[in-house]
Design a protein that fits this description.
By secondary structure, the protein is α/β, with parallel strands linked by helices. The strands form 3 sheets. It has an 8-stranded mixed beta sheet with strand order 8-12-11-13-14-10-15-16, with helices on both faces. A hairpin with a 3-residue loop joins strand 3 and strand 4. The chain is elongated. It binds adenosine-5'-triphosphate (ATP) and magnesium ion (MG). Adenosine-5'-triphosphate (ATP) binds next to helix 3.
């Protein structure tokens, strides 16, 4: 009997003890790692964590909340997931991922979190900006009315880009996509445009080459490079373009003009797909997650031209997309084509034939930029696309037989000169005046009887002659946007006198 009393009291004691036990662990802001692998941690706890919040792990490792489920969280770790073990405790930070912003970033190479990776020491930025922010509203924007000069003849004449525009550069691998973007950055020297180059999933050696080029052309001092290499975690590659555009936005809201390049968004889409498949989200078309369109639209919508009330700053975006065998109707290319204001299509065949930059004028468009084209450029390049289209049509036709009538031969000769004029060396952007003069000369037909290989030397001589004898022709075009009849006649006279030293052909 006494045994029973003892047992009863014992169980009572245990019950009392259990009741008194304060079992409340703070699961609101503390969590525990349940599993870890492939840079993805599954966390128990952290009940109040927000989507996109930064989570702190031991050893100064951080991650971002990507999945919120009923009783667990999926966190993508940025770097150093090898340090994290199952059972580790992690904490909320109560802030979303943000990057340092400001002028101290100019001339620097940083990773997706804004940390320097160029070995030049600490970056002294006073402000930070969240990487994910809502794009400016419609009323905060104004239409595009100023040109962004790329210095590339084929673009400025036929597919002009305006400040605040989003123009896609699309083409197969090794067709000069990066080259176009880098030349555009080089051309912004002295034009008060800040540049941000965001490299996603590229080899470190390619990036080193780009940094070196920018340095040698004195373009690095107004450029920030945000890089997340192919060897970095998918989460870093995923966040890199958002980090880059946040840095750009800071300048835009100060009323400055910014040019941003995303090189490239195909690799970004692949990194995002990898990340979400590891987080066990269901795959959709081509195994991309369902929100892949939103991934890029919310990024590209952040570039715009702000209204004058907000300072009139702008972000011009040049996203790059790689195609396979010229297929622009694949999933990611069509998505991004529909988000942007036009595309520069680079044609592999043209590139291999030596027509570089290989801009295909048939498939390239700029839906808003022509409103911002300079008067002179608009005038001299008016018939250019049409003449090229005619040329291409005749060329296909002429392959059937050798007897061509005079008018066909004329179109072919003229088109060949136009195409030759649009060729341009890499890293050699031209001022608008030089572009306009060359396009005017080739459009005038005066070079149609010149051997094709002589077109470039004639233009080179013409440039030197004008510089030496009448530089005001260039100055008036650049400064007051006029190229009057008198100046045009002078240019044609120069060409005539240069031409006599070059052999002409029977092409006409
Ligand atoms: P990837 O798909 O590998 O990123 P890409 O499309 O970015 O390639 P680039 O790296 O820019 O292509 O250029 C490919 C090659 O073509 C480079 O060797 C580059 O020097 C050369 N190239 C690009 N543009 C020109 C040009 N206008 N004139 C001569 N060579 C050029
Ligand atoms: Mg490239």
């Amino acid at each position: 009997m006494s045994d029973k009393i003892n047992l009863n009291s014992l169980s009572q004691i245990i019950k009392d003890e259990i009741d008194k036990f304060d079992h409340k662990i703070d699961t609101a802001s503390v969590g525990q790692v349940v599993s870890i692998g492939d840079n993805i941690a599954t966390i128990y706890g952290l009940d109040e964590a927000m989507y996109g919040e930064l989570i702190e792990f031991p050893n100064n490792t951080f991650g971002i909340v990507m999945n919120i489920e009923e009783d667990s969280l999926g966190v993508a770790i940025f770097e150093g997931d090898a340090e994290i073990k199952e059972g580790d405790i992690c904490h909320r930070t109560n802030r979303v991922v943000s990057v340092p912003v400001g002028d101290a970033l100019l001339g620097r190479v940083v990773n997706a979190l804004g940390q320097p990776i160029d070995g030049k020491g600490k970056i002294d930025c006073r402000e930070e900006r969240a990487v994910e922010l809502v794009a400016p509203q419609i009323m905060d924007r104004q239409s595009i009315n100023a040109p962004l000069e790329t210095g590339i003849k084929a673009i400025d004449s036929m597919i002009p880009i305006g400040k605040g525009q989003r123009e896609l550069i699309i083409g197969d691998r090794q067709t000069g996509k990066t080259a176009l973007a880098i030349d555009t950055i080089i051309n912004q020297k002295g034009k008060n445009v800040i540049c941000v180059y965001c490299s996603i999933g590229q080899k470190n050696s390619s990036l080193a080459h780009i940094v070196d080029r920018l340095k040698r052309t004195d373009s690095l001092n107004y450029t920030t490079i945000v890089s997340s290499g192919a060897s970095e975690a998918c989460s870093m590659q995923y966040i890199a373009p958002y980090a880059a555009i946040s840095m750009a936005e800071h300048w835009m809201y100060q009323g400055k003009d910014v040019l941003i390049v995303f090189d490239d968004l195909s690799k970004h889409a692949v990194a995002y797909r990898t990340l979400l498949l590891l987080l066990r989200r269901s795959p959709g078309r081509e195994a991309y997650p369902g929100d892949i369109f939103y991934l890029h639209s919310r990024l590209l919508e952040r570039s715009c031209r702000l209204s004058d009330d907000l300072g009139g700053g702008s972000i011009t975006a040049l996203p790059i997309v790689e195609t396979l065998a010229g297929d622009i109707s694949a999933y990611i290319p069509t998505n991004i084509i529909s988000i942007t204001d036009g595309q520069l299509f680079l044609n592999t065949d043209m590139f291999n034939e030596g027509q570089r930059p290989a801009i295909d004028s048939n498939l390239s468009v700029s839906r808003v930029g022509s409103a911002a084209q300079t008067k002179v450029m608009k005038k001299v390049s008016k018939n250019l696309r049409m003449a090229l289209a005619n040329y291409r049509e005749m060329l296909d036709f002429s392959r059937f037989g050798s007897d061509l009538d005079k008018s066909t031969r004329k179109v072919l000769a003229h088109g060949a000169v136009l195409l030759e004029t649009l060729k341009q060396k890499q890293y050699k952007p031209y001022p608008t005046s030089r572009e306009a003069v060359e396009i005017f000369v080739s459009q005038s037909g005066i070079l149609d009887d010149v051997k094709i290989e002589n077109v470039y030397p004639i233009f080179k001589l013409l440039y030197n002659t004008i510089q030496a004898q009448d530089p005001s022709i260039y100055e008036t075009i650049d400064k007051s946007d006029t190229f009057d009849q008198e100046a045009q006649n002078k240019v044609l006279e120069f060409v005539k006198s240069i031409k006599v030293n070059f052999q002409t052909t029977e092409r006409e």
